[in-house]
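Below is one such protein, fold included:
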Amino acid sequence: MEGYKGLLVYEKSYKSALKMYEDTRSMPKEELYGITSQIRRSAASIPANIAEGYAKKESPEEYRRYLIIAKGSCYESKVWIDMCSDLGYMSREWQKEMLERYDEIAKMLYRLINPK
């Protein structure tokens, strides 16, 4: 694989976004334009920003900026995950699994943003 698709963080965030779309299909219809839409957008924003930033790699500052945006979307997703569980739309097991996924993605993004 080449380009952004070769980044492990892209692959993990893309697969997590797909899982989020699949898992949220069972949420109440009245949430379609509320929490369901918000959690899907924040999850999809992570791999999208990684890809967009990668396309601007010639400018390290721009690349880093998009990675920071992706990390922000990662944390936003974690808020929606908690909210879905607390409202009873998703199980505590689902919450735990998804939070672990997004914690890992956030750590990976942090390492890309702050290489040492």
Remarks:
- The CA atoms of residues 12 and 24 lie 18 Å apart.
- Residues 60-86 form the longest helix (27 residues).
